[in-house]
Every structure is written in structure tokens, then in C-alpha cells.
Write a structure and sequence with these properties.
This protein is of the alpha+beta class. It is 42% helix and 24% strand. The N terminus is likely disordered. The protein starts with a helix and ends with a helix. The strands form eight sheets. Strands 1, 5, 8, 11, 12, 15, 16, 17 and 18 form a nine-stranded mixed beta sheet that branches. β11 and β12 form a beta hairpin. The relative contact order is 0.07. The structure holds adenosine-5'-diphosphate and magnesium ion. The site of adenosine-5'-diphosphate (ADP) has 15 residues, from α4.
Length: 834
């Protein structure tokens, strides 16, 4: 019933809208000029000092600046279908989305972001005859619930709180306030919650409106009380909706979170310096953390593993954890003042909103069709979109003397999976420290996110006169990250020869994500006995299905790594190789440092106790992917975790674990075998006693006939002399026949050995053919492909194709010849013997 965020990734997990309001009195009196313009889904902001104008695009943009008339306090478009976007128009796009998501059982969150006075509360709550998103949503919600009350029972709970300076205040509580605010607690099943928060059951929109008014009044007093003003606190309304469909016995529960965020402007209040600092830090912290949470969630939705979502970093994100993560939809509206005097703040607001929009997973581009791989197209569009951002980041790094360099990369451009299929492409940003050559690889959303923080730092730097920036603590420096191992590239070791129990010795090319040669790895696959002795050519299998149900032992040998590009670039580095053999855990070779051609010297024994069809199929169709990981000074080396890995008494890793299940449930089957043996035993005992009885009878008869026999024996002796000479003759004939049978069967087994040998040659030659094919697939024209370069590319391509087809034909021809020779020899021999 419920979809995960990842499932919705292709749809709309974060929708971002921007709205611009009319001039207010102060702006009008100051003779302000409007610096915001909008067209279809883009917003352009003009620098009043004549700098370049900035353009951003979003899911929706709302022009509420002009083109309206006021009737009894109500804002209406001057002409029907005019430019002015009224409250109903905003509800249509955003409120309706929230409502439908909640009715379907998804959590939905709607946030308003912008500088104080830009229209957040007007958009969220509205006033007088211009009801905002929240009251309209409540009306529509209760309307829908009453319409369906025959088939569904429902419950709605309302709560309203404020977060100021990281403290929680219940806005529906009339009594005395807890000093230090209410406690935020965490329970395993419930997640974060506010202890003792009032939740009021509601059954009409009117009731909710009354509560909202009560809460808004309390907010004003609360903030006066704490010597602040409401613009510096976040307000969070939560509607908890429960729907019970008794006929289908389904219950749907969803949380609607409606957030009027604190003003995004940099704080310059009237309180004491220390208070202001604390307050400003708290607001910036929670708004920044919110952005970090959204971008981490977008990473999760894209299927990235091990992403840390920093919910715990602020009270706001703690309380929104359920609403943002899991099965949820998020909507954000950023509000702008139109005035030139607010240019800086408006730019900052648009950047924040753009960062959210930037976290949207890339779909098929946001009019383009054709046969091109859609994921590649999306990456291409991302690349173009990110290019200027990377240039800006480099510029900022230079001006702030950060000494890091950013470069766009396409992840997996030249890499493939264990079956040789293309991997999903994505954008990554390579960050290199110019000081010590340390390298980081950032995801697209991490970069977009960090770029926003860099801009904050940069603006601060500009505001302080543009001198050298003071030291920023590392963990708050957007240019810095702890060093991690870096995936440099992958190599493929094809497993097919193991299915024939043929040993393989290979020089493998490790390819970087964009096709560069990162290193050569010398690797072997050696089929062996359970104790690790290598097998002989006699053990080669002609038919791999003979492996089924039987034990298979082999060793993976990683001898050496040569020509490491990673080390050629800087010597204070190391490498490790990671790999996963079938269903075994990921294993890593020990780290080797400071060496361009390090010895690896690893021999790892694997055992399948009863080869399953799945393993056999894997051997025949897949490769072992060897991942080359780059280590840098100060990073943690990669280690394996052997939890759940079985080993044989000789110490080899057991793979193909699924096929071991019969061995695990032996108690049952032993019991059954024992029963069967007991039955067999008792029937044998019966047979034995019958046989004994038979013997008794025979003995009696024998004694009686003894006398008759001695008479007969005498005449028999004469006859047997003649028979003996006859028997000797036929014995000689029989041994002659047995001899020729043995010769025929040794002839068959020698055929099999020969066939095995030529298969081995064939598989070896196929490996080099496969490498040629991969080279062909990777071969691309150079980036600045003029006509001349293209012509060269086509010529090279043709030459490579020629080599490829020649090699392929040669190896097939050799195999044909070998097989023909074997067949001929076999015929000749059988002709001789038959
Ligand atoms: P915020 O909550 O962001 O501090 P408000 O919503 O209180 O800002 O807006 C400040 C003032 O601007 C309001 O008093 C309101 O009169 C005016 N205003 C804001 N948005 C609009 C709008 N879309 N149309 C008309 N007036 C608006
Ligand atoms: Mg407000």
C-alpha cells in the first residue's frame, strides 16, 4: 500500500515553488524598483548594482506582485486568467498535492522559506478574506472525509508548536510554560516526539481554525515573553490523519506537517550580542541542517548506500524525521520580496530553494526523445547544468585561498557489472587538494549542497571586506571533508574456465570510471583439491553440468599490481583490492603503501560443498569484479567482516551457501534414514532365518543322497577329464576379449583429455578476444572531435575491428581443427579394434 521514497524518486519527492509578493508600504515609500521577473517556470533576479542577472528554474513560480485588485480586502486577479497568482492558485498546485498524498497514506510536508516579511505566513496561514494553504487544506480535508464516511472512519489530531533557540513551546497549552521548553524524546518505534505535547482531536475545519487562531495568539505572546519576535522561531503544525476502511480491513495513517520557518535573513536583532549570536546560530543551524537532510534523502532515494541523514543535528529535523523520510512527499515554497533593497536576501533565498530543486533525482529531461539511453541523457543534462556551478566553486576556492580544485566526472562511463552490462551513469565531482593531492569524490547532491554553504562563506567574506578569511573549524568548512578510500577502477576476471576446471592466469587491465588504465593486476584462478593441490589436465570437464551437486574447490591468486596510476601521481598513497566471490562477503587484500608495483601475494581458497545450478550459471556467465581502492594518508583502511561466513576444516571460505541447506537440516533426514535402515534390518533377519531353515532341509537330503553320489562320482571322474580341456580353451578366448575392451576404454579417456586440452587453449584465446571487444566498446572519439579527429577515430575503429575478427576467427578455427583431429583419430582407432 505504501511506497518508499525511493519508489517515488522518479516522481516528485521534493517539489519546489517560488512566490513574489506586492510591494509593502515601506518599499513603496522608498520608491523601490522590482528586481524579480518570472516566465513560465523560471525566476530572474536583477542585480540593482548592475551585476549579471541570475536565473533559476523551479516546479512552480507564482507572480503575486502585480495585476491584482482588492475587493473588500480580498486580492483577486484584475482580469480572469490574468498574471496574478492568488491563494487558490497556490493551493491548486501545492495544497492539493499535500492533501492527495495524505489521503493516499503518505506523509506530506509543506515548508515556507524566506526572509521576514516576504510572505511566508500569508502564504501558509493567510489572513482575513485571503485564507492560506493551511485553512484551505483543512476545509478540503474534512470535506473529503465526510464524503467518504460511509466506507471509511477517520480521526484527525491537531498539534501546534514553536521552536525557538532549539527549545520547543506548545502553542496550544494555556498553562505555565516549562522552563527550557518541552523535552524531545526518542523511542524506537515512534521516533522523535515532544513529551507532553497537546494533541487535540478535531472533527471540523472550523474547530481547526479556532485552534490555529489560539496558537497564533500564543506565538506572539510566547515570543514577546522571550524577548524575541515570531520571525525568529519556526512554527510547526501537525495534522495526524487516520483512515480506517473496515470493509477492506485497511488502516492508513499519515502525518501532514506544515512549517512556517524562521526568517532566513542574517540576524541583526536588538537583544544583547550574546543572545543574538546564540539565536542566529540556532536558526542557521536548523535551516542548514534541513537542507542537509533533504539532500541526503535525495541520495538515499537514488539508491546510494551508507548515506547519513543528519536528522539529529537540530530539533526541527528531529521532529520532521518521520515527515521527511520513509514514505513521504515534500513541498517547499520560497517567498520573495520584489524590492531592489532586498536583492541580497532574495538571492540567498533563491539559492537555498535551488539547492532543494538541485536535490531532485534526475529524470528524463526535466521534451527530449530518441533512442539514446535516457539515463545517459539525464547525466548529460546534469553535466551541462553543473558546469557553471563547478566553475563558480573553483572561483570561490581561489578567492578564499582554499586550494582545492573541482572537476566534473561521469561515474561508470566505462565500467560494467559482473555480467559485462553497463552500470548506471551519474555525475560526480572530483575534489583535489592542490596542497597535498588528496582526493574526494562527491555525489551531485553533495556538491550542490556544499556549493550553497560555500556561497554563504563567500558572502560573509565579501561582507567583511574581502580580506583573508579567518580560520573556519574543519567540520564547518564546506571545502573540507575527512579523507576516505576512493574507488579507482575495476577489472573483470571471467569465471568461465572454472566451470571446466581449467586454470586461468591473467594480466587484467583495471579501468577507471572514464576508461583510463589505472593499473594491471596479475591474477589466477586455480581449480584444486580440498587440500589445495592443483588438478591435472585429466580433471578437465567436458561437460560443466558434471559439477552439479559435487564439491568444487578453487583458489583465487592475486600476485601483483603493476603501474598504479594512483601511486605515480603521489607516493604517499596505498591501495587495496576488494572483491566478492558469488555469495561470499566482500573481501579486501591487506593495504600496500608507497609502491607503484606492489606485491599482493594473496591466495584465497573457496569451496562449494555441493555445486548448485545457480553457482554453475554464475561461473558460466559472470566475472569476478576486482575493485581497486585508493588509500590516502590518514584514511581508514578497508576491512572485511567475516560474520556468517562458513569455512571448511582446511580453512577455505565456503561459497554457494544456499546449496548447503540439506546439510543443515540433517537431523530430520538422519531420523528418516534410521527408520528405513531398521526396516531393512528386520526384513533381512527374516530372510536369514528362512535361509537357515532351508539349509536344514538340504542337509537331510544331502546325507540321504551321499551313498548314491559316491557311486556316481566314480563314473564322473572319467567324464570330467574330457571337459577340462574344453574349459581351458574358452578361458583363453575370454581374456582376449577383456583385453581389447580395456584398450577401447583407455582410447576414449585419452580422447577426453585431448578435447579438454584444446578447450583450454580455446578459452584462453577467448579471454584475449573478450579484452579486444571491451577495448572496442570503450573506444570513443576524442572530446574536441573535429572532422579530422572523427576520421581518425573511424580508421582506428576499423583497424581494431579487423584485429578482433581475425583473432576470433583464428581461435574458432583452431578449436574446429583440434576437434576434427580428435574425431579422426578416434575413428581410426575404433576401425583398428573393431
Ligand atoms: P512573513 O511571514 O514571511 O514574515 P508575512 O506573510 O507576514 O511575511 O507578510 C508580510 C506582509 O506582506 C503581510 O502583512 C502581507 O500584507 C503582505 N503580503 C505577503 N504576501 C502577500 C501576497 N501574496 N499578497 C498580498 N500581500 C502579501
Ligand atoms: Mg510570518
Amino acid at each position: 500500500m505504501k511506497a518508499s521514497l525511493a519508489e517515488m524518486a522518479g516522481k516528485d519527492c521534493v517539489k519546489v515553488a517560488v512566490r513574489v509578493r506586492p510591494f509593502n508600504k515601506r518599499e513603496r515609500d522608498a520608491g523601490s524598483v522590482c528586481v524579480v521577473s518570472m516566465a513560465s517556470s523560471s525566476v530572474t533576479l536583477q542585480d540593482p548594482r548592475g551585476g549579471p542577472s541570475r536565473c533559476f528554474s523551479f516546479d512552480h513560480v507564482y507572480w503575486s506582485h502585480s495585476g491584482f485588485s482588492r475587493e473588500g480586502g480580498r486580492y483577486l486577479a484584475q482580469e480572469p486568467g490574468g498574471r496574478y497568482a492568488d491563494q487558490a492558485c497556490v493551493f491548486q498546485d501545492l495544497g492539493e498535492g499535500v492533501l492527495q498524498s495524505a489521503l493516499q497514506g503518505y506523509n506530506a510536508t509543506l515548508l515556507a522559506y524566506g526572509q521576514t516579511g516576504s510572505g511566508k505566513s500569508s502564504t501558509m496561514l493567510g489572513h482575513g478574506p485571503n485564507p492560506g494553504l493551511v485553512p484551505t487544506l483543512c476545509h478540503r480535508l474534512f470535506h473529503s472525509l465526510t464524503q467518504h464516511q460511509d466506507s471509511m472512519q477517520s480521526q484527525v489530531f491537531f498539534s501546534m508548536l514553536e521552536i525557538y533557540n532549539e527549545q520547543v513551546v506548545d502553542l496550544l497549552c494555556r498553562g505555565a510554560r516549562a522552563p527550557g521548553g518541552l523535552r524531545v524524546r526518542e523511542e524506537q518505534h515512534r521516533g522523535f516526539y515532544v513529551e507532553g505535547l497537546r494533541r487535540v482531536p478535531c472533527d471540523s475545519a472550523v474547530q481547526v481554525e479556532q485552534l490555529m487562531e489560539q496558537g497564533t495568539r500564543a506565538r506572539t505572546t510566547a515570543t514577546t515573553h522571550t524577548n524575541a519576535n515570531s520571525s525568529r522561531s519556526h512554527m510547526l503544525i501537525t495534522l495526524q490523519l487516520k483512515q480506517i476502511f473496515s470493509r477492506e480491513s485497511i488502516t492508513k495513517q499519515s502525518f501532514i506537517s506544515l512549517v512556517d520557518l524562521a526568517g532566513s535573513e542574517r540576524q541583526r536583532g536588538s537583544g544583547s550580542e550574546a543572545d543574538r549570536l546564540k539565536e542566529g546560530t540556532a536558526i542557521n543551524l536548523s535551516l542548514t541542517t534541513l537542507g542537509n537532510v533533504i539532500s541526503a534523502l535525495a541520495d538515499v532515494a537514488l539508491g546510494r548506500r551508507g548515506v547519513h541523514v543528519p536528522y539529529r543535528d537540530s530539533v526541527l529535523t528531529k521532529l520532521l524525521q518521520a515527515a521527511l523520510g520513509g514514505n513521504s512527499r515534500t513541498f517547499m515554497i520560497a517567498t520573495l520580496s520584489p524590492a531592489d533593497i532586498c536583492y541580497e536576501e532574495s538571492l540567498s533565498t533563491l539559492r537555498y530553494a535551488d539547492r532543494w530543486a538541485g536535490t531532485r533525482p534526475s529524470g528524463e529531461p526535466s521534451g527530449v526523445s530518441g533512442q539514446t539511453d535516457p539515463s545517459l541523457l539525464a547525466v548529460f543534462y546534469d553535466y551541462i547544468k553543473l558546469m557553471p556551478m563547478v566553475a563558480e566553486a573553483n572561483q570561490m576556492s581561489q578567492e578564499l585561498h582554499k586550494e582545492v580544485e573541482f572537476k566534473l566526472e561521469i561515474k561508470n562511463l566505462a565500467l560494467s557489472d559482473a555480467r559485462g552490462h553497463d552500470l548506471e551513469k551519474d555525475i560526480a565531482v572530483r575534489v583535489t587538494s592542490l596542497k597535498n593531492r588528496q582526493v574526494w569524490l562527491w555525489s551531485k547532491s553533495k556538491f550542490v549542497n556544499r556549493k550553497y554553504l560555500m556561497e554563504e562563506l563567500y558572502q560573509q567574506h565579501q561582507a567583511e571586506g574581502g580580506g583573508a578569511v579567518g580560520p573556519v573549524p574543519r567540520e564547518r568548512d564546506p571545502f573540507w571533508d575527512p579523507v576516505e578510500p576512493l574507488l579507482l577502477g575495476k577489472a573483470h576476471l571471467w569465471l568461465q574456465s572454472l566451470a571446466f576446471r581449467i586454470a586461468l592466469d591473467e594480466q587484467l587491465e583495471v579501468l577507471g570510471s572514464e576508461g583510463t588504465e589505472e593499473a594491471i593486476v596479475q591474477a589466477q584462478l586455480i581449480p584444486c583439491s580440498p587440500t589445495g593441490l592443483s588438478l591435472s589436465e585429466e580433471d578437465i570437464l567436458i561437460d560443466p553440468s558434471e559439477l552439479l551437486g559435487r564439491r568444487l574447490d578453487f583458489q583465487l591468486v592475486l600476485d601483483q599490481c603493476c603501474g598504479l596510476r594512483w601511486l605515480r601521481q603521489a607516493r604517499d598513497r596505498g591501495v587495496q583490492i576488494g572483491f566478492q566471490m558469488f555469495d561470499c562477503v566482500q573481501l579486501f587484500t591487506p593495504a600496500v603503501w608507497h609502491n607503484v608495483n606492489p606485491l599482493l601475494d594473496q591466495r584465497i581458497h573457496f569451496t562449494s560443498l555441493q555445486t548448485s545450478p545457480a553457482l554453475l550459471e554464475h561461473l558460466q556467465t559472470s566475472a569476478l569484479v576486482l575493485e581497486l581502492w585508493g588509500l590516502q594518508e590518514g584514511c581508514v583502511e578497508l576491512a572485511w567482516c567475516l560474520e556468517g561466513v562458513g569455512t571448511t576444516p582446511e580453512g577455505s571460505f565456503i561459497i554457494d551457501q544456499a546449496s548447503d541447506t540439506p546439510a543443515v537440516c540433517t537431523v530430520d533426514s538422519l531420523q528418516r534414514d534410521l527408520e528405513a535402515l531398521r526396516k531393512d534390518n528386520s526384513s533381512l533377519r527374516d530372510q536369514l532365518s528362512m535361509a537357515k531353515h532351508g539349509c536344514e532341509c538340504v542337509r537331510g537330503q544331502a546325507e540321504r543322497s551321499q551313498a548314491e553320489r559316491s557311486q556316481a562320482e566314480r563314473s564322473q571322474a572319467e567324464r570330467s577329464q574330457a571337459e577340462r580341456s574344453q574349459a581351458e580353451r574358452s578361458q583363453a578366448e575370454r581374456s582376449q576379449a577383456e583385453r581389447s575392451q580395456a584398450e577401447r576404454s583407455s582410447q576414449r579417456s585419452s580422447c577426453e583429455v585431448e578435447l579438454g586440452r584444446s578447450l583450454k587453449v580455446f578459452y584462453h584465446s577467448m579471454t584475449s578476444v573478450r579484452a579486444l571487444l571491451q577495448g572496442l566498446r570503450r573506444h570513443r572519439p576524442s572530446e574536441d572531435a573535429g572532422l579530422q579527429a572523427l576520421r581518425l577515430y573511424v580508421c582506428e575503429q576499423a583497424a581494431q575491428l579487423k584485429v578482433f575478427s581475425e583473432e576470433l576467427e583464428q581461435s574458432v578455427a583452431a578449436l574446429k581443427q583440434d576437434v576434427a583431429a580428435i574425431v579422426r583419430r578416434k575413428r581410426e582407432r575404433s576401425g583398428t579394434w573393431s
